[in-house]
Each structure stands twice: as structure tokens, then as C-alpha cells.
Amino acid sequence: MDLKSGYPFWAVSNGLMQAFPRLETDHRCDVAVLGGGITGALIADELAGHGFDVAILEQRDIGWGSTAASTALLQYEIDTHLVDLAKRHGEADAALAYRACADAIDQLHAVASAWRDVGFARNASLYYASRRRDVRALEEEHAARRRHGLEVELLDAGRVQEDYGFDAPAALLSRQGARVDPYRLTHRLLQRLQKQGASVFDRTRVVEIRTTSRGVALRTDTGFSVRAAHLVIAAGYASQHWLKKSVARNRSSYAVISDPLSEEALGFLSDTLLWETARPYLYARSTSDHRLLIGGEDDAVDIPAKRDARVEKKARTLLKRLHDLFPALETTPAFSWAGTFAETEDGLPFFGPHAQWGPRVHFAMAYGGNGITYSMLGAGLLRALIERRPHPLWPLFSFERLER
Predict the structure, then answer these.
(1) What angle do CA 302, 303, 309 make, to 5 degrees?
(2) Pairing label, strands 170-179, 292-299
(3) Tens digit of pLDDT for each residue in 220-231?
(4) Chosen domain end from 343, 370, 393
(5) End-to-end alpha-carbon separation of the chain, Å?
(6) DSSP-derived pairing of the beta strands 225-233 and 361-365
(7) Overall number of domains in the chain
(8) Are 336 and 195 in a shared domain?
(9) Which CATH number belongs to the domain containing residue 393 in this structure?
(10) Pairing, β 283-286 against β 272-276
(11) Same-domain check for residues 241 and 352
(12) Are the C-beta atoms of 401 and 104 separated by less than 8 Å?
């Protein structure tokens, strides 16, 4: 599957950081992880850190799929408002999901703190009303989050203009956000795992999965096999290839990044994630080298050639929308790109076994706008399932919710 178009900044800035070996012999392990992006890396790190012999298999180069195209805003806010999620799953479960995502930011900070070069930084998050009619929804969302212990502040139009210098009828301000270079973090995690004895294979494509009561057998396109007690399918949006029935819809998202700017020019955007209530939403974040990354303009295009043809026009639209908000902010575009992502109907991920495959095949579908946050949560959830322990998020993040 062709997952990206244009020149994703992380791929350009980092290049191919390291080539891992291709699988060239039969292999055995406790857990095989299919997918060498940020999701697979976080899950493998969690499992290996708790005593499992792990093997990671990636059909491309490590991190070269959707991870390289991710804009990596780390937020606890789910694309579905807490109040709307409560209508679907009950307020207790909706609040559980939001609080867990807030905790996941701290967990990601702990993981990333092992390295100084992965672009991790704590950020505030400013979620502004695109239209006056969205203010009521923000007021309800503010009340719901505060009711469940989430620290968030409701700003009126005057505060938004005074503190942030642009016009919006209202905004929600939270401090529990962050940013990261997902491609570099993926490589750092897998490099460390390899040094610790885990097996990491890239350019290794799995073409067949067979399950038994005792384990899982994989066959690659070159005829080698991997036998494991458990399999985790963390192949991003390609994971749906292994299911007879789709559980999410693929979409395309677009991004453009500027040349480096001064701290003065970036202003509050140097340490604040910006996004809006409109869907699809405009968003912006800075990078560790003081560039401004702007994203959004999502559409339903799922054909790579059509997505490729739209990148430049979408980039111009994103820059214009940012300039409409901040007329004095002068940006020079450096690279633009697009990537395929998937979204579920309720904005929540899927983790764990699917009835089609039985209990030893676990899916890690961290779909939605905060996929890296979900991946961090999914790592702990999948470890609990493999260790046959209960986990509070399992009923909400499992495939069973499709049957409710």
C-alpha cells in the first residue's frame, strides 16, 4: 500500500537512519510484531521490557510508512468530544478514555526521555471555535472535562485575542500536550531493542498467517517462517488487509512545513499545539528546529495517484488559512506531503483479538488523530491480554464494542 505522497519532513530530515537485516532464516519467538512503525515500536518496547522475546517484521524500511508522514501532535483530546463519546458509550467509559489518553502523554514523555534527539517537548493545546455556533459545544465540553478531573480552561474571544493574537469566539486551553519526531523515536526504540537482543527485520513481507491452539505461524514472501506464541498486527492502515470486513475508513491528510522561523515570529506556537472545531480541522505545531508544521484539509481520497496530484494545492490552502489567522506571520514553505490515515466511526482505536483469527492474533489499530497516544495505551493493554490479566480499557478498545 502506497501510504504517502510528496516529501514528508521526517523522512527528508532524517533519511534512512539505519537498515536492519532482512529475515533470511526460520525464526522462533514469544511475540511477533508485524509492523515497524511507531505503533509496533512502542508495543515491542513494552513487551520486551517485561521479559518477552520479541521479533519485529516490517515489509518496508523501518518507520518508512505512515510514521514518516505523521505530524505527531500528541494530545489527550480525542477527535470525538467527550460529551459525544459519552452519548455512544456512557459517560464513565468516555471519561476513562480521556483520562487514559492524558496519562499516555506522561508515559510517552517517560519513553522519549531516554534520548535527547527525538524532538520531544511538552506543549499546551489550544482548541479554538471555528464559528460562533461552536461556542456552546465548547462550553459543554469544558464542563464535562472539568467534571472528570481534566484540567482545562475556557477562554472567551477577548482572552484569545489578548493572549494569542487572533480572532476566535472561544477556545479551550489545556496543558497536557506534546510533540515528537515519530520517525526518529521509532528508530531509537528499535535500535535499543536490537542491542538488548530483540530481533528486528525490515524488507520482510509476511504473506500468510496460520493459527493453532498453541501459537501462530507466519510465512514470508521468500519462504521463511516465523513461529510465535502470539502475533501483534501493528501494520497501520494496512492492518485491515488481514480482516474480511473493514472496521475503519481510509482518508488522506495533508501537511506543509516552513523554513525555520525565529522564536519571535513563532510566538505562542513555539510551545502550543493549535487546532480548531471545524471538521476537517486546521492544526499547527512547531518543531525542535523552529519550523512551523501546518496540517489538515483531510479528504476521502484513497487513491495514491489522486492524492499525489492534490498535495501542492492543499499546501497552498493550508498556508492561506494560517495567514488568514495570523496575517503578520510570514512563512516560506519548505516541504509538503500527504499521508493515508484511517478513522473509526467513534474515534476510538481497536486493540486485541478479532473473532476471525482467535485469541493469539492481536490487532493494534491506533486509528484517528491521536494515533501515537493510542499506541502508547495499546502497548500496555496488549501486554495485559497476553499475560491474561484484566485491563480497564479492554472493553472499550476491543472489537466487541462493534456488537453493542
Answers:
(1) 115
(2) unpaired
(3) 999 999 999 999
(4) 343
(5) 32
(6) parallel
(7) 2
(8) no
(9) 3.50.50.60
(10) antiparallel
(11) yes
(12) no
